[in-house]
Amino acid sequence: MWKLIRPDAYRVWNIDAVQERLWRYYEVFNNRLSAKFLIALKVGLEEDLDAETDKLWNTHDKTSGVFRSLLKRVDMDEIELKKMDTPKISYLDLKVELARRILSECHFCERRCGANRLMDEKGFCRLGKESYVSSAFMHTGEEAPLVPSGTNA
Does 34 score more than 90 pLDDT? Predict the structure, then answer.
């Protein structure tokens, strides 16, 4: 339907620069490549997620190379993601743990208020433990390569 509403959003994919810069987005959108979070689920870790934060960041830095290598192999059809085992602790689990730790001394935004949102302390944004989506809708008002696009507020 969006192709009828915004034909420019469809035609924009014929522009070489758009295809070059957003190629992976388009391939995932068309179910020809796997989303990165699905690939991150397949990268295993030896590290205990209870380790010190600095140690987890070091593990993250090291594991990022493993992730990028797997991403490349999956994208080149050298390996089939569905046939891979899912490890007990994954790179995605590590990212979730690091995000949880950031929430405990919140610095997600540029205000870096330090609120412990895990304890429901309200930060500058007035959000505590839970974030809320007040509305969600599909719209066609984005730049043509991103149509249709979802908006949450």
Answer: yes
